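Structure ticket #2291
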Amino acid sequence: MDWKIVDERLIRRGELLLSLDFLEGYGNELKSMNDGRVGHPFKLTDRYIEFLIVVRYLFSMSYRQVEGSTRALNRLIRRLPSVDYSWVRRRILYLGLV
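Resolution: structure written out below.
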C-alpha cells in the first residue's frame, strides 16, 4: 500500500473549495443592479449574497457570524464591503433564497 497516496486522499477529503467566481464582474454587476434604482443603492451583488448563504449553511453560522465573515473578507479583498448582519438577512429574504 502506498501511504503517500492514502495520505493525499485523506487530505483531499478535508479540502473545502468555495468558489470566488462572484468576484468576476463584481463592479459591473453592482452597477447594473443600481442603474435606475430609486432609494439606497445595493452594496452587495446577488451572487455575493448567494455565496454568503452557502457559507452560512455550510458552517451552520448565525447571521452575526456571517457579518464577521464579511469583515474578514473585506480585510482580504477590499472591494467587498463588510455589512451588518440584519442587512444581509434582509437581502437573503428579499432574494427568496431561504
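Closing remark: Helices lie at 3-13, 26-34, 46-58, 63-76, 85-95.
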